[in-house]
Design brief:
The chain has 173 residues and is of the alpha+beta class. The protein is 49% helix and 20% strand. It is built from 5 helices and 5 strands. The protein has helices at residues 69-79, 90-103, 106-122, 127-148, 152-171, and strands at residues 13-16, 20-32, 35-44, 49-54, 64-65. Helix 1 packs parallel to helix 3, helix 1 packs antiparallel against helix 4 (127-148) and helix 2 packs parallel to helix 4. 26% of the residues are buried.
């Protein structure tokens, strides 16, 4: 197997955008069209699913390592910062957030959580947007928990405390 395209190791935790945090359980070769192709075998605990991703497609799919602790902390801080108002047209907003989710950085995901949370305080989110918010929140909780090595429940509490403090500041005269 060529090491120039193998960026991740067995037992390494990785983020698969829009799927969640997974662990590389193996690197295997499979024959495809009479050619041996190396694959990462990734177990996604959140969906109890194992997927195989060709090594040479991992970067294209946005698969990346868990962010360092400083970056996870920065994503948490971003949640309580000022932000630009988002479009009121939910379809435009949904597409904008879906694009961010596909990019998959922890700050992009935090941006989605922050904007949709505040939007939901103004008006109930349409079903598709609610699902997008729930997915982004779960992704953010998982990655920050692994990065900071703290329980997901604690991360969830931290996220909502920051979201609520921001909302409270905005709502007060």
């Amino acid at each position: 197997m060529s090491d120039d395209i193998q960026r991740f190791q067995i037992d390494q935790r990785v983020v698969y955008p829009s799927q969640g945090v997974g662990i590389i359980t193996a690197i295997k070769e499979k024959e495809f069209k009479k050619q041996k192709i190396p694959y990462y075998v990734i177990y996604l605990e959140v969906s109890d699913m194992t997927i195989m991703v060709p090594l040479d497609k991992a970067e294209e799919l946005g698969i990346r390592a868990i962010v360092p602790q400083e970056e996870a902390q920065r994503a948490l801080e971003l949640i309580s910062e000022e932000y630009e108002p988002i479009p009121s047209d939910w379809k435009m907003r949904y597409q904008m957030n879906l694009d961010l989710l596909k990019k998959g950085s922890v700050t992009d995901i935090a941006t989605i959580v922050r904007s949709l949370y505040h939007r939901s305080k103004v008006k109930e989110l349409p079903i598709l947007e609610r699902k997008l918010y729930d997915s982004a929140l779960k992704l953010l909780e998982d990655e920050v928990a692994f990065s900071l090595r703290i329980p997901k429940e604690e991360v969830e509490t931290m996220i909502f405390a920051r979201l609520e403090s921001k909302f409270t500041r905005l709502a007060s005269p």
